[in-house]
Amino acid sequence: HAARLASAAAPLGLRMRVHADQLSDTGMAERAAELGFASADHLNHTSPRGVAALADSDTTAVLLPGATFTLRQAQKPPARALLDAGAIVALGSDFNPGTSPLHSMPLVMALACRLYGLTPLEALAAATVNAAYVLGLEEGAGRVQVGGRADIVVLDLESYDLIGYRQDVDPVAAVIAGGRLVHVAPGARERVRRG
After folding, report:
1. For residue range 143-190, what is the model confidence (pLDDT) as tens digits?
2. Which residue from 73, 14, 3, 10 is spatially nearest to 43, judged by alpha carbons?
């Protein structure tokens, strides 16, 4: 069925994504890579063959630590193996009321560091530039660049290294969307003006 869906979606410009290997190794990570899907998501039980297939493709491995945390899954995705093999790894919240009722990307990044062993820099890249890539937005989003949209989240941290350290504090000081300041956290307004 996956091949038929992929062949029907391609002429319509639809990029396929799949919920893969969350509860058992179904081989769907390998299949997604083979069929050129935009992403394979979850990957808690992905085999070494799935890791190799993702690393040899443009299919993004989307890790969802909120679901792993909420469901108390002992089996975690092979995050380090994916990164070491050269796979494109992104992070998502998987925000939903049943298995991942959290929407804070700083918390998702902290969980990725704590649960999956990502470094803060790896988590930052996975939540920004690689997340933009999986959504097909890599030309103007996911990084600060000339000609980009200027969608920026300002964190009240001394260094990105602290992203995974304090999970109980929301570090978001301000949000800039399309070059416009759209949110300033309470107590952060003076710091944002000075910065």
Report:
1. 888 887 888 888 888 888 888 777 777 888 999 998 899 999 987 766
2. 73
